[in-house]
Amino acid sequence: MHITRRECNVMVFNIGNDSEMDLIGYELHNANSESKVGHGDRAGFVRGLLEKSMHITRRECNVMVFNMGNDSEMDLKGYQHFEKLEFFGYTYGVYFFKSGTFVNKGNGGWDNWAFNGDYERSGELGKTVNFKHKECKILEK
User: Fold this and answer.
1) pLDDT exceeds 60 at position 100
2) Crossing angle of helices 18-31 and 42-56, rounded to 10°
3) What are the φ and ψ backbone dihedral angles of 134, each rounded to 5 degrees?
4) Residue among 45, 30, 21, 26 at smallest CA distance from 96
5) CA 107, CA 5: separation in Å to the nearest integer?
6) Residue-wise pLDDT tens digits, 37-67
7) Chain-centre distance of CA 50, in angstroms?
8) d(Cα 131, Cα 117) in Å, to the nearest integer?
């Protein structure tokens, strides 16, 4: 599946038990409320989302946090969860998935993206990230 940034703005992947999805979304939203992160500290917000995501997935998934205002190309497989969060007018996508490729065509840095999992970076300024397969069964009973 090839997803562009524009398509991601309208897509939400819900796989698994809805109550678990609600809990994940609640944890991600609550972990980084604007009152807990310095006013406008986008880098702190993104780092916090990544840390919380790694905790939620028990480091069993590949995780991408990305400023959806930047252009990107994705070919991510085995979605477990997708969440959109707002922070001072910026929209971030948080993805839990098994494998795939993500290309950041915009600005880098902590303000705009963070990721974790089993990956290798390549391309100009390391903006292409190839994620190797991880089992990522966080929502399976």
Assistant:
1) yes
2) 150
3) -130, 145
4) 21
5) 14
6) 666 789 999 999 999 999 889 999 999 999 9
7) 7
8) 7
